[in-house]
Design a protein that fits this description.
mainly alpha; Rna Polymerase Sigma Factor, Chain: A; Arc Repressor Mutant, subunit A; globular
Length: about 210
């Protein structure tokens, strides 16, 4: 529970206004808590190959870079989202170590030619804010992907960021090519619903 429920929102507003100290405060405030969550979940492979602080930093950066502005309004939401994305960071890093493939999903924005452009702006839009709207839409999609169940998230990442064929996805997941194709198509409307829920402020329902 927050001693002052508005503290997280105030810090987020200050950070998005360009206050680097506010960002440092957000990270420092819950760094120890996140570190403990990471330590509880590290397997032998990750312990041998990486440093806990690196994983923590990756998780914090993901939350603060890809979380649309003002979505999180309480420390409880902030912590829950960090915990969820920390799990993803660990899962991605373990997969990278097993396969030797880079986590390109962490390095790239939503592809401009992606099928994940769930709500593209009309071609006739000429408002100066149109580019900002598109960037925010990508933020919603990125966060919605992070909140998918692990296998569905992996399918989206393999297809959209790594450019894997459905045959390759099937091989990696141990399923048939047609099953991989069907699962990808099935996850798209679910992802769209997640985006809509996030836009409506229903973060708690997805955590």
């Amino acid at each position: 529970m927050d001693a002052e429920p508005s503290e997280t929102l105030v810090l987020l507003q200050r950070w998005h206004g360009g206050d680097r100290v506010a960002l440092d405060n957000l990270i420092e405030r819950d760094l120890g808590w996140v570190r403990r969550q990471v330590e509880l979940r590290l397997g032998d492979l990750l312990r041998a190959k990486g440093d806990v602080d690196d994983y923590v930093q990756s998780a914090m950066v993901r939350v603060l870079e890809y979380g649309p502005r003002f979505l999180m309004t309480s420390r409880g939401q902030f912590r829950a989202l960090i915990a969820r994305i920390t799990e993803n960071v660990l899962r991605d890093e373990a997969a990278r170590l097993r396969t030797g493939k880079r986590d390109v999903a962490r390095e790239r924005p939503v592809p401009t030619d992606s099928i994940l452009a769930l709500d593209p702006p009309a071609q006739s839009v000429t408002r100066p804010s149109a580019a900002a709207d598109r960037n925010q839409a990508k933020d919603w999609i990125r966060l919605a992907i992070e909140l998918l169940p692990a296998e569905e998230r992996a399918i989206v990442q393999m297809r959209e960021w790594r450019g894997c064929s459905f045959a390759e996805i099937g091989t990696e997941l141990g399923i048939a090519e047609d099953a991989a194709r069907m699962r990808f198509r099935r996850v798209l409307p679910k992802l769209a619903r997640h985006v809509e829920q996030l836009r409506e402020g229903q973060l708690d329902d997805l955590l």
